[in-house]
Design goal:
- The structure is a single chain.
- This protein has helices at about 45-60, 100-105, 120-135, 140-145, and strands at about 1-15, 15-30, 35-40, 60, 75-80, 80-85, 95, 110-120.
- The radius of gyration is 18 Å and the shape is elongated.
- The protein is α+β, with helices and mostly antiparallel strands.
- About 30% of the residues lie in helices and about 40% in strands.
Length: about 150
């Protein structure tokens, strides 16, 4: 799946008039735990979207999930954005803002509660959520890192 999350039009005043350029934030995902984003700039909108889609396919990550939610709470800070995500019980759905909701649904996460504080810059919001998703670890990986066997719990 591919979705255009954000398009920005920039104009530069030059001797002959105004020169327009575009930037596009593109999201790709399979709905089964793999998701990626790409941010690209070009003089034409279609070129920016195509370049962003290519970059998104290159930058895909695999998200650690526990059933239909995330394995643990996570707090992430990126630039002016503070993101808090918490696992939710079955039937809750995705309770989050528009950019975060899109990323989580493309990753295949169905039950989660997320909140963004600070900046409303879409690029920084998406970067923060990708850092948070890549920092998620499964229960077994955390226990192994602590040196605890599962039976000793």
């Amino acid at each position: 799946m591919e979705k255009v999350l954000f398009i920005n039009r920039c104009s530069k005043t030059v001797k002959g008039g105004k020169k327009m350029s575009f930037s596009a934030l593109i999201l790709v995902g399979d709905g089964k735990g793999r998701v990626g984003y790409g941010f690209a700039k070009a003089n034409e909108l279609t070129d920016a979207i195509r370049k962003g889609g290519d970059a998104a396919k290159k930058n895909m990550i695999t998200v650690c999930m526990e059933g239909s939610t995330i394995p643990h709470d996570v707090t992430e800070k990126w630039d002016g954005v503070t993101l808090i995500m918490r696992p939710a019980p079955e039937g809750t759905g995705v309770i989050a803002g528009s950019k975060i909701r899109a990323v989580l649904s493309f990753a295949g996460i169905v039950n989660v509660v997320a909140k963004i504080y600070g900046s409303n810059n879409p690029v920084n919001q998406v970067r923060a959520i990708f850092r948070a998703l890549s920092s998620l670890m499964s229960r077994e990986a955390i226990l192994a890192a602590r040196g605890v066997t599962h039976e000793a719990q």
